[in-house]
């Protein structure tokens, strides 16, 4: 009887200790990468960009990109801190075509063209350093 009682006490103490260690380890785990909340206005020739996307790509190519949609010239994005190359895109519809030329029931596809100059997207010259806090970052683009 004495051995059985000691074993139960030992087992209960070991269980409590195990739970405590797990809580300590989980509680001390890192919270994940630091992200900054960016928001701002994007204009092209002083007019708000109606729709599009803004992407913040790490300047050194290491780490995830962050970004978000542009609507009525405004954007909001969650981005990891550090130097970034900014890419802004806003495709515009320039026509339509059938997905299958010889099929009368073919769905119609939009033909789009980039309205933002390449120096702001595919060959971006825009640079921005994201701080480890919320920030406003406006981008005034020029088509010339």
Quick structural overview:
Helix content is 18%, strand content 44%.
Quick check: average pLDDT? 85
Strand content: 35-45%
**What is the CATH third-level topology name of the largest domain?**
Immunoglobulin-like
Number of strands: 11
Annotation field: number of helices: 1
Shape, please? Answer: globular
Structural class: alpha+beta
| Unreliably modeled segments | none
> What's the architecture of the largest domain in CATH terms?
Sandwich
Listing every helix as H and every strand as E from the N terminus to the C terminus, the arrangement reads HEEEEEEEEEEE
Protein described:
- By secondary structure, the chain is of the alpha+beta class.
- It has two domains: 1-32; 36-141, Sandwich (Immunoglobulin-like).
- The chain has one helix spanning 2-27, and strands spanning 36-44, 47-48, 51-58, 66-71, 74-79, 82-89, 91-98, 108-114, 127-130, 135-136, 139-141.
- Strands 1, 2, 3, 4, 5, 6, 9, 10 and 11 form a nine-stranded mixed β-sheet that branches. A two-stranded antiparallel ribbon has the order 7-8.
Attribute tags:
144 residues; alpha+beta; Immunoglobulin-like; 2 domains; nine-stranded mixed β-sheet; two-stranded antiparallel sheet; 1 helix; 11 strands; globular
């Amino acid at each position: 009887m004495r051995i059985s009682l000691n074993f139960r006490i030992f087992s209960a103490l070991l269980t409590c200790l195990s739970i405590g260690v797990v809580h300590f380890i989980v509680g001390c785990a890192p919270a994940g990468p630091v992200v900054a909340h960016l928001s701002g206005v994007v204009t092209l020739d002083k007019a708000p960009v109606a729709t599009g996307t803004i992407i913040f790509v790490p300047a050194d190519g290491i780490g995830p990109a962050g970004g978000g949609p542009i609507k009525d010239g405004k954007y909001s994005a969650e981005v990891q801190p550090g130097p970034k190359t900014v890419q802004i895109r806003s495709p515009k519809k320039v026509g339509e075509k059938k997905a299958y030329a010889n099929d009368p029931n073919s769905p119609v596809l939009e033909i789009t063209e980039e309205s933002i100059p390449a120096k702001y997207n595919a060959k971006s010259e825009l640079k921005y350093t994201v701080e480890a806090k919320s920030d406003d970052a406006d981008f005034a683009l020029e088509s010339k």
